[in-house]
Design a protein that fits this description.
heterodimer, A: 315 residues, mainly alpha, B: 402 residues, ABC transporter involved in vitamin B12 uptake, BtuC
């Protein structure tokens, strides 16, 4: 009996870990694209909140979570455009402009929620897939494996599927090559006829669309509710995960899983009321991130022109 | 001919100097559009805000109460910026400062004269904030860890650490006894409350009200702020003195010069024989110390106990960035700037009550102000570049002596 519950708990933790990785993955993969082009988008937090709200609102009004996700991606693109105008065209200090965008997103999403919804309890978003092959046989019902790998929302699978997709796009397509070029050596890219700013606009807007979806995955898939400031720092963690993962989608995924697993662990510590102060447990992932940021070899992986605005003929 | 050129230049410089104001006006205009879209008359809403913040003695007192931590945090942000590092960690530094101030205050209690304990507690807050700033500074200087990210992480760690202390070792014994377990500390002894304006006025023998003296209208309100009972404490005066000291430090001392030099050009400073790493750590430490001082002043002047960390920091770490940017990262410029943004926070609250506009609207406007102010830097640079070209050497010597 004791062993069985221990097993169930471990399965539960792994399942939650994979599930909770969804928003981190969407946001961090989006941020990866943006940073590879040389733009540090610290506005992810605010973009996620806007995506969370609009995704929730559209799902609530239409009853269709797919429309909700589309709306979240669209508002993400708009927020990304705003970020790009400020950070690329107006060459603003990216560490600060992102904080501004995050405050803007926090303010607008909270205000709209209060005035447009206010008392709405929740929506029926994406439900867990069961992978039923025949009427009675479902992959989700397989012991252990079914609990861990099947039985997730479609957005969770989409998030993990994005890992190879983003890897492929960044490394094997011309578009990806251009994105990396403007992030690594904008002068050289420019001299070869690549429009540095245009590529950065595209990368930031695409990355922000993913950040918007990340927010929606939180509000309409994981939780089914919207709350003021519901991301509670996930957007900033996502930015750190990109550093953590060495600017590569696979590394980012490992970081996201690590983070979400610690979160899941901490949830279970609370559920089981284990004698570990939960405040200390919550601290762990942040400490871990700082430690990871200090690992020296990462420096060589960082896009050389990250946070550096490009101006023709400056040098 | 020469005279007209002089006028032109003065005009250009004035426009440059006023850029943050234009940026803020644009932010408010967009905020107004958002308000209008929700069926609220933006002019009425902004009027409610302005009158609420600056129109009466109560509003003014609250405005100065909020301007105090903004000014102190803003000074810290400015020091970091001047040193070429970005401190997003003022929230955490403020919380750590507030925690340590409370702890020291509770330990020393009434064993020493109140003024001495206040002084020690203030130093304690500055010290702990400084430690919380030194960590990312050290990581930046020695291991090249991005300070933006490390300070954001340290904010979260500070919040959790505060909850841990307030639920455990530092919890108010009364809460434990009552079994309610609300996470806050015991109240600090009254002897170490920072004096309020009204206390000072009474000490100086001022006991007449504005009505007694026949002072009417707005002047009467101003007189009321200075003398009548309100939450306004001398922390604001303290913060203003600090601003002047930071100005002297940055512009009149060698260490201050070194910080600014490293901020302007790290490589050149290294060639000039400056210890860049040590200067970076110093800028971050001082930056954190001022945020910690803000936390200390909030505890000693306003709250008199430590409670919910995010309610104590109250977003000052971020609003302080706006105040610092709007004050052009100049210690003396941050004084009026912090009063304006203190007023904005108070006015937002009043607007919510008067017009049913959610207060978070202010957060959105603050975000826009940041975005627009950092964008105007580029415009100013472009405009200056255009002007400097013909007289390049002249301008650089001016910039150096400034």
């Amino acid at each position: 009996m004791g062993e069985l519950t221990a097993m169930a708990i471990i399965i539960g933790i792994i399942h939650s870990g994979i599930r909770l990785a969804t928003p981190y993955l969407f946001a961090a993969l989006g941020e990866t694209i943006s940073q590879r082009s040389g733009v540090l988008n610290l506005g992810t937090e605010g973009i996620m909140l806007m995506g969370a709200f609009f995704g929730f609102y559209v799902t609530f009004v239409t009853g269709n979570p797919w429309l909700g996700v589309t709306a979240a991606a669209f508002i993400g693109v708009l927020m990304g455009l705003f970020m790009a105008v400020v950070s690329v065209t107006f060459q603003a200090e990216q560490g600060i402009s992102g904080i501004g965008l995050s405050l803007f997103g926090l303010g607008v999403s909270s205000m709209l929620f209060k005035t447009m919804l206010g008392t709405v309890e929740g929506v029926k978003g994406f439900s867990e897939l069961q992978f039923c092959i025949t009427g009675t046989f479902c992959l989700a019902n397989i012991p252990v494996i079914g609990d861990i790998f099947f039985n997730h929302s479609i957005l969770t699978y989409a998030a993990f599927l994005l890992v190879p997709i983003v890897t492929y796009v960044l490394n094997k397509t011309t578009w990806g090559l251009k994105v990396r070029a403007v992030g690594q050596n904008p002068e050289a890219a420019d001299s070869l006829g690549v429009s540095v700013n245009k590529m950065r606009y595209a990368a930031v807007m695409l990355g922000s669309a993913l950040a918007g979806i990340a927010g929606a995955s939180l509000s309409i898939s994981l939780l089914g509710i919207f709350q003021e400031n519901m991301t509670n720092g996930i957007g900033y963690i996502a930015v750190a995960l990109v550093y953590f993962g060495g600017w590569a989608p696979l590394g980012v995924m490992l970081g996201a899983l690590l983070f979400s697993s610690v979160n899941a662990l901490q949830l279970w510590v609370q559920v089981l009321s284990l004698p570990i102060p939960s405040d200390v447990a919550v601290m762990l992932p942040y400490l871990l991130t700082i430690v990871a940021l200090a690992i020296p070899f990462r420096r060589s992986l960082q896009p050389a022109a990250l946070t550096k605005p490009y101006e023709r003929g400056e040098n | 001919m020469r005279k007209s050129k002089f006028n032109r230049e003065t005009f250009d410089r004035l426009i440059d100097a006023l850029m943050p104001v234009f940026a803020a006006l644009l932010a408010f205009a967009i905020g107004g559009v958002i308000l209008a879209l929700q069926g609220v008359n933006p002019l009425e809403a902004y009027k409610a805000m302005l009158v609420g913040a600056f129109g009466s003695k109560n509003g003014l007192a609250d405005t100065f109460v909020k301007a105090t931590p903004l000014l102190l945090v803003g000074l810290g942000i400015a020091i970091a910026f001047r040193g070429g590092v970005i401190n997003i960690g003022a929230e955490g530094q403020l919380i750590m400062g507030a925690l340590f101030t409370t702890w020291v205050g509770l330990q020393l209690g009434e064993q020493l004269p109140g003024a001495v304990v206040i002084m020690i507690s203030l130093l304690a807050g500055a010290f702990m904030g400084g430690v919380w700033g030194a960590i990312p500074g050290y990581l930046k200087a020695q291991l090249n860890v991005n300070e933006i990210l490390s300070t954001i992480m340290l904010n979260q760690i500070a919040i959790q650490f505060a909850y841990y202390l307030l639920r455990g070792p530092m919890i108010d014994p009364a809460e434990l006894a009552a079994g309610t377990n609300i996470p806050h500390s015991a109240r600090l002894p009254k002897s170490i409350d920072m004096p309020r304006f009204t206390d000072v006025a009474r000490m100086m023998g001022v006991d007449q009200t504005a009505k007694d003296l026949g002072i009417q209208g707005y002047l009467g309100e101003l007189y009321g702020v200075l003398t009548e009972p309100s939450r306004l404490h001398t922390g604001f005066i303290f913060a203003v003195i600090m601003a002047i000291l930071v100005y002297i430090f940055l512009w009149r001392t060698t260490i201050g010069f070194r910080i600014r030099a490293v901020g302007l050009n790290r490589h050149a400073s290294r060639y000039a024989g400056m210890n860049v790493k040590r200067t970076i750590i110093l800028s971050m430490t001082l930056s954190g110390a001022f945020a910690g001082l803000a936390g200390a002043v909030e505890i000693l002047g306003l709250h008199h106990r430590m409670f919910e960390p995010t309610a104590v920091s109250a977003g000052y770490g971020f609003t302080g960035i706006v105040a610092a940017l709007f004050g052009k990262l100049h210690p003396l410029g941050i004084i009026p700037s912090s009063i304006i943004f203190g007023g904005l926070l108070v006015g937002g609250d009043k607007m919510q009550r008067a017009m049913q506009v959610p207060q978070v609207m202010i957060t959105a406007v603050l975000g826009l102000i940041i975005l627009f102010v950092v964008s105007t830097d580029y415009i100013v640079r472009k405009r200056q570049a255009k002007r400097i070209k013909p007289v390049a050497s002249d301008e650089t010597t001016q910039a150096e002596s400034a």
